């Protein structure tokens, strides 16, 4: 504290007789880095406090669209239309649509990027509810057990009506199954392709391995107008 006090008194003495503009110019020239660091620190504290105590923590629904070049994020028509359809109260929980994710698990070395690592982390943390991507990419991810078996547990009851659209794959882990299991739903004829243009050659939706809201994934399918066997 004594050192700071001496520095303050020294600079105060040095600036005697300077006009206000000259003082500001001097401070900006010699102390810009200090100002930048202090401003950054204050901004970080404000950001941390705001997100720690005032932002909504939980999600109504979180879906990722992999490798689309079209806007499908939280400000997109797709997201806003779905929120309106579902009637979510965003003051209670979040709705997350992520379209900034790019990797190709079907290609050698195609997962060696931060997008894939973040994608897997969101699944493993139970944050992401569903993901949509091209079929080859989807099957490569699904074989590693990142998507739920739609014929088992709670998913079996929820997704049985969409059985004729199931996409099957053989898991890497043969202790789970030595035959193909349903892990995705083909959305090639859905508005994601025909109306919103997210994928030119079709796409598949998978229920994340640790999804907390599988019923909201069904709601998303209903919003898209994906017909069940009974409706057909």
Structure characterization notes:
The protein is 42% helix and 13% strand. The chain has eight helices and six strands. The radius of gyration is 26 Å and the shape is elongated. The protein has a six-stranded mixed β-sheet. Strand 1, helix 3 and strand 2 form a beta-alpha-beta unit. The chain has two domains: 2-54; 59-224, D-Maltodextrin-Binding Protein, domain 2, CATH 3.40.190. By secondary structure, it is of the alpha/beta class. The model has no long low-confidence stretch (mean pLDDT 86).
Task: Supply the number of structural domains.
Answer: 2
CATH class assignment of the largest domain: Alpha Beta
Task: Count helical runs.
Answer: 8
Name the CATH superfamily classification of the largest domain: Periplasmic binding protein-like II
User: Main β-sheet, in a few words?
Assistant: 6 strands, mixed
Helix content: 40-55%
β-strand number: 6
Mean pLDDT score, rounded?
A: 86
Q: Which structural class fits the helix and strand makeup?
A: alpha/beta
Estimate the strand proportion: 5-15%
Question: Which key terms come to mind for this protein?
Answer:
232 residues, D-Maltodextrin-Binding Protein, domain 2, 2 domains, 13% strand
Write the layout of secondary structure elements.
Elements: H1 2-14, H2 20-53, E1 59-65, H3 77-86, E2 94-98, H4 114-124, E3 130-133, H5 135-142, H6 153-159, E4 166-169, E5 181-186, H7 191-194, E6 204-207, H8 214-224
Parallel strand pairs: 1-2, 1-3
Antiparallel strand pairs: 3-6, 4-5, 5-6
């Amino acid at each position: 504290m004594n050192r700071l006090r001496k520095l303050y008194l020294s600079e105060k003495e040095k600036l005697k007789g300077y006009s206000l503009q000259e003082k500001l110019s001097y401070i900006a020239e010699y102390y810009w880095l200090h100002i930048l660091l202090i401003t950054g620190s204050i901004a970080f504290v404000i950001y941390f406090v705001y997100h720690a105590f005032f932002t909504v923590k939980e999600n109504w629904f979180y879906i990722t669209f992999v490798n689309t070049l079209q806007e499908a994020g939280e400000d997109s028509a797709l997201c806003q239309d779905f929120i309106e359809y579902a009637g979510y109260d965003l003051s209670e929980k979040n709705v997350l649509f992520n379209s900034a994710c790019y990797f190709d698990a079907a290609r050698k070395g195609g997962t060696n990027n931060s997008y894939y690592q973040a994608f897997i982390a969101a699944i493993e943390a139970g944050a992401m509810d569903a993901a949509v991507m091209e079929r080859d990419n989807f099957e490569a991810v699904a074989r590693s057990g990142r998507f739920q078996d739609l014929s088992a547990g709670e998913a079996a009851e929820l997704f049985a009506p969409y059985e004729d659209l199931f996409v099957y794959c053989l898991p890497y882990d043969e202790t789970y199954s030595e035959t193909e299991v349903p892990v995705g739903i083909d959305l090639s004829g859905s508005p994601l392709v025909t109306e919103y243009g997210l994928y030119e050659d079709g796409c598949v939706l998978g229920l994340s391995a640790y999804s907390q809201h599988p019923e909201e994934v069904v709601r998303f399918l209903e919003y898209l107008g994906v017909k069940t066997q009974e409706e057909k």
